[in-house]
Amino acid sequence: MNQMQEQDTKPWYKQFWPWFVIAIPASSVVTGILLVTIAVNNPASMVKDDYYKEGLAINQILEKRQLAKEMGIRADVDLSGTRLEIMLQSKQPINDSLFLDFRHATLADRDFSLALKKNANGVYFAELMADGSTKDTQGKWHVTLRPYGDEWELEQIWTLPTKRELTLGY
Predict the structure, then answer these.
(1) A Pfam family for this UniProt protein (predicted)?
(2) Which of 14, 53, 155, 169 could, after both became Cys, cross-link 10 (CB 3.0–4.6 A)?
(3) pTM of the model
(4) C-alpha 115: how far from its chain's center?
(5) What phi-psi label fits residue 122: left (phi over 0), alpha (psi between -120 and 50 degrees) or beta?
(6) Is 124 left (phi over 0), alpha (psi -120 to 50) or beta?
């Protein structure tokens, strides 16, 4: 009978089990607040805010690519070191300024665009480090070649660095 009469005289807040039971939902609340804070401070860059407009514009993009195909435009790209050279072939003469856009597959802050210059031999070129900074070109890129007027475009997915020849077009 002695064992039955023994009662724990400690108050509840000095017991282990109530704190254990309270700790489970409390840790869930703290984890939830932490995850919401991380999500708000680090938005996903892969999600487009204007996905509906992009969906509507797909026909215009397809028309630009079809025009490039009809014009027989092809670009052979030599990416050696910090200099990029493009030899352009086309059924029709192209006298427009050209731009080469690099969009990283997952990191929007690494995207950049190059304005290409044309030399006397008809080769377009650009320096990857023209502003003194270094551009990290390693990774998977969506590369788009387009003229100043945006009449046509060529796009290709490249994984850099590579030892194979880089081409845009058909």
Answers:
(1) FixH
(2) 14
(3) 0.66
(4) 20
(5) left
(6) beta
